[in-house]
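pinging the channel bc i need a second pair of eyes. not urgent but kinda urgent?? the chain im working w is below, pasted from the shared doc
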Amino acid sequence: MELPIEIAAVVFNIAYVLLAARGSIWCWPMGIIGSGLSIWLFIKSGLYAESVLFTYYVFMGFYGWYAWIRSTENRDEIQIRIWNWPVHSLVLIGGFIASYGVYYILENFTDAQMPLLDAYTTVFSFIATWMVAKRILENWVYWIAIDALTIYLYVSRELYIYAALSAAFTVIAFYGYAAWYKSYTQSPHQTNGSY
């Protein structure tokens, strides 16, 4: 029963990332479906933080879909933005602190497997997904690191299709960064985001 659900989730999740890299609004419904299918698989595998993360992806899918629809009505909001180093420093510090908080909960109150790595990938995935919705260029750099780490996490839980998916996501994230960077440099209204 798990394998067909895992395959379907992978297909929808790949569609999400490819469409997001191309800047297509249709990435969001693909992500909603793929994430919805993933939640059950992670609960069954004892990766509770991942299941919470994919629940968040479902909600962010609706938010991102709304934000991108709205941005087509207001062309200033559709622009890709970059964050400066002070903003990234705050995000990283906050992300590490939050990760240790999640780790503490997973370690002490659940039977979660690999709670520290699960916490890190979960917290930073929350951050990177929000960055995608806000069209922050560097989201792809965060995703490269997150996806590379999740390969090991998924292999450790024998979720080999998800491990392969994370490997594909790592490659697609490089493409996404290049595509968004090209769009950013060709934009007449380059903007730096501070939030």
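so Residues 2-189 form one domain. and The longest strand covers residues 81-83. — does that match what u expected or am i reading it wrong
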